[in-house]
């Protein structure tokens, strides 16, 4: 098939960015002719499996769901744009896509603005609802909800990552036909358990290769001097809890910090966002912030940690972070809600009966989180190995990217 894969943002860092580049890689490896449309200035930094990349000329105004920094772009929330600005953005992207038609399929990310962009091409299209657009921009905004509903009416399929997002889509957009639940995936060949010495050695190699970031001026780059600090921090095999993701209040990192005050463990916090300064101010002792890291770092960092916490207090489309951690040997512990609960259920099904409650905790309850952390960190090596094998088995069987990419195409070819 010839596939035009549209994504309005970058190819690294956040969930939908990883989703896009992973699909491009897997579809290309499967023999499809894939062209990616994104605002990524350095696509050569990513393994896209041979897919080509086009950067549409959008005139410098980038609509987003959360306000982050994008080099060389004026960033504004989707709901804050005028109708004319949104229409110009859609027209510019649709023009770039039409220049590459004919194609068998246009696959677009996000109900808005991906749905309107795909619909404007006049080609056969499908849309992936990620959740951020629904929760952060469309919920409570009738104009955007109506626009999304109209654009999805012409899609031959709409994909959601969890039953939770299927419900959110109904709440925000209204009933949509042809909705299919296909969870996001994990690169199970990249995220694997590693011997501790090898993981630390390889992590330091990757960190030494990071670009300069004096005074950490660029929030999307790893912190300056990470290699030296990681080497010092992780040399000893002490109980270690990992968080990686956006640093927003909704992600609940403050709940994790409250819990860690009652747990004998150190913490590594990976990510960027407007809540970082407050988190640094309130972090418990023995907490290391690294700034954002790419998969090349995370695949080496995760095996060095004992538990990966996902303490979000806001609905999540899926628990990709938890699945990546489980694949690489760090036991996932997630807030028990939305798409995170579906990850917890899948992993716990592979645990022995007495340990099945150790995949999730009550949302926002730092005492429950602390208790679960203490139990996980107190496991003896044999018990820990048994849970690690079960967690990885759950990921391989349910959420590998190769399987996800295939499922997105199978019913409609």
Kindly describe this structure:
The protein has helices at residues 15-29, 83-98, 114-121, 132-138, 142-153, 163-173, 196-208, 226-234, 253-260, 276-282, 295-301, 320-328, 338-348, 366-377, 381-398, 401-409; strands at residues 2-6, 33-37, 52-54, 61-64, 74-77, 105-109, 125-129, 157-160, 179-181, 240-244, 266-270, 287-291, 307-310, 331-335, 360-361. It is an alpha/beta fold. It has 16 helices and 15 strands. Strands 3-2-1-6-7-8-9 form a seven-stranded parallel beta sheet, sandwiched between helices. It has a six-stranded parallel beta sheet with strand order 12-11-10-13-14-15, with helices on both faces. A two-stranded parallel ribbon has the order 4-5. The protein starts with a strand and ends with a helix. 42% of the residues lie in helices and 15% in strands.
């Amino acid at each position: 098939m010839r596939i035009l894969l549209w994504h309005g943002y970058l190819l690294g860092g956040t969930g939908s960015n990883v989703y896009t580049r992973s699909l491009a890689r897997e579809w290309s490896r499967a023999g499809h002719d894939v062209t990616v449309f994104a605002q990524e200035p350095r696509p050569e930094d990513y393994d896209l499996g041979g897919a080509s990349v086009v950067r549409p000329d959008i005139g410098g105004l980038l609509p987003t769901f959360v306000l982050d920094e994008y080099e060389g772009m004026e960033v504004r929330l989707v709901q804050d744009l005028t109708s004319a600005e949104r229409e110009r953005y859609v027209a510019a992207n649709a023009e770039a896509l039409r220049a590459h038609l004919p194609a068998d399929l246009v696959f677009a990310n996000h109900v808005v603005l991906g749905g309107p962009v795909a619909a404007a091409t006049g080609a056969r299209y499908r849309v992936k609802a990620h959740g951020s657009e629904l929760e952060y921009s469309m919920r409570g905004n009738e104009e955007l909800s109506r626009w999304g509903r109209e654009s999805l009416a012409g899609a031959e399929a709409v994909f959601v990552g969890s039953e939770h997002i299927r419900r959110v889509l109904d709440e925000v957009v209204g009933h949509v036909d042809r909705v299919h639940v296909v969870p996001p995936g994990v690169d199970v060949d990249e995220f694997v358990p590693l011997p501790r010495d090898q993981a630390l050695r390889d992590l330091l190699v990757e960190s030494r290769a990071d670009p300069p970031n004096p005074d950490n001026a660029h929030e999307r780059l790893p912190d300056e001097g990470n290699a030296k600090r990681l080497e010092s921090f992780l040399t000893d095999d002490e109980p270690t809890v990992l968080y990686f993701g956006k640093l927003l209040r909704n992600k609940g990192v403050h709940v994790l910090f409250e819990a860690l005050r009652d747990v004998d463990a150190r913490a590594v916090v990976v990510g960027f966002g407007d809540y970082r300064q407050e988190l640094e101010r309130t972090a418990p002792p023995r907490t290391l912030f690294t700034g954002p890291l790419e998969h090349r770092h995370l695949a080496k960092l995760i095996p060095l940690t004992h538990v990966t916490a996902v303490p979000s207090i806001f609905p999540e489309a899926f628990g990709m972070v938890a699945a990546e951690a489980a694949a690489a040997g760090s036991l996932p512990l997630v807030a028990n809600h939305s798409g995170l609960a579906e990850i917890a259920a899948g992993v716990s099904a592979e645990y022995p009966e007495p340990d099945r409650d150790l995949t999730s905790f009550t949302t926002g309850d730092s005492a429950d989180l602390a208790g679960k952390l203490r139990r996980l960190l107190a496991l003896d090596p044999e018990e820990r190995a048994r849970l690690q094998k079960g967690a990885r088995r759950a990921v391989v069987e349910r959420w590998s990217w190769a399987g996800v990419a295939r499922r997105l195409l199978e019913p409609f070819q």
